[in-house]
Amino acid sequence: MHPGFFVAARVRALERAPETVTGGRDRGGGAAARDAAARAYIAEAYENDYPSKPAYHGQDPSDSFQIAGNNLYINADTVNINGVIQSGLPDKIITITQDDVNAGYTEANASGERFVKIVEVNEQLDGRRVVAGGISAELDTENGEITILGTEIQGGKVFISGRIVSTGDGKINVIDGYGRIVIDNQSNLPVVLRKIDAAGVEGEVVLIDRAKDNGTGLALVTQYERIGNEVRVYTNEEINSSIATKLISTSSGRKAIYQPLENMRYFWMTGKATSIQTIKKWYKEHDKFLGFIPVSERHFSSSDYVSGYPKTRILSGDELPQGDFVGQKHAADYTYKRLTVTTKNDLIHQDDSEGTYWYWHPGSWWHPPYPAKKTWWRRTQIWDKGTNTYNYHSVKADLPIDVSFIGYDRGQVSVNSVGDIRLGGNLNNVGGVTNLTSSAGSILSKSSFASVKSGEINLMANNGSIGKKDMYFKITHSGGNTLNALAGKNIYIESPNGDLFVTNLVTGSGSVGLIANDNLLLSNSISIIKGKNIYLEAKTGTIGAPLDVLRVDTNAANGGVIDVISAKGDINLMEVSGDLAIHKVSASGDVNIFAPGDIIDANSSERVDTRTKNELLALW
Question: Please, which pLDDT band fits residue 351 given cuts at 50, 70 and 90?
Fold first, then answer.
């Protein structure tokens, strides 16, 4: 891990300075390989000069990083938190269009596959893809359905052990509470919801800092928790234990800070191994007189260089192995030092040649022109020089690290679909708000085990039904919960475990069926159940209460009737408008039914209860 991008620009500027030597180190290969390469360069004759400063190809320090997953456990000698470490992602949002569906069918026809993933939202953090799984939509071409996958909010634990430092921008985010799941199906196909979980977790961050001593020879442990709306910080300071039990601070909200050990620094080295080949060419002549040439004339000096020589060329450039470490030292925010070391300077090729030629000597005042002979010498050498350039950097690594408990105090699940919404598994949003809306279809259960558990449930199918008579739409309720349902056709809802609390249920001209395992009650005094035909059943409890009568609005004028069954309790019911046509009433306790109009017996099928008749005759 390298320090964040806040020093990157300065680092690049220093490493690219003109005196920096860049290139590559000798890759070996023997004298023959080097000689062959040298001859190739000689043949080129260096027709084009090479720049004195080659382009920089070094590795810059990395930008701040992001790690996001579910529960995170990190154990290392040193952990530099110079970006975001995050446990859990509080938001999962996906949109499916008709074009996505059409493309999925095209792909399926080409591949022959039944299931095709048509949309995949890879979760991002600050514009970067992260580790945690995203949410996706899969097309079932056989059943003509879209299944939503990856609809669980997970996380809540961060555990980091090592010498903990930060070179800046350090953040630890941990989900605490609930998440938000939003699904928008703009296609005409039904959408299938498998398991949906908006979580409801208690976040926890545990930091075991081996750079700090807790006073007993153990590493200092710092633990962050959020209880209610309060962040609590515990340590093991002066405790002969690795468990943080000593409360040192509390604060309201969702944020806290961790301070690494003072004067901690992050040191790192980058470098270049450079191989530079230099070609030197000399040429000189000497008049040969009586066959004798002085030995001194056979040596070359800089005055004998061929024009344009010597020339150099950088053969290749390799980065040196990088190194980094963390230590404690008081220094400036950022330091830099460069060191260049020569590793070799070898003559890898030499070529000598000589010859003679005749020419016409101009003569002198005492001698007329005459033919003369000259001797020439030419030498070519290639030198290979290796250098290593090291760039040493260090930055402050004791900057504070933000600790944040992210998420929502209340979960939210929102599903909007043109077609049906089909529940194929449990939707868990305890205490949260769940909105299921189908603009042109129905809201149905795909499995008898599927259920919605939420504090506030809003169901809307303006042109369809909610549930079916042979498979009720199941919900799980508790005290204080609300249920609003609006359907253009029928509504069939069951609470198989516990009470059923109804706020408002309204159908156009359809029927309403409500079944509660325990009590069937209204959320408040103005709540109402409206439908042409209404079926109410409490299997082990009561329907309504003496001071909180269940309010219904049937359509007796157009043949609407009501069935009310309370196997083990009372019935307290009131019609709010007109007559009330009763098809069946059954209770083990008291029955109180009110109506502003007439209460009508709508059951045309009669059976004599002989036992009751004989008891009455005996009484009289």
Answer: confident
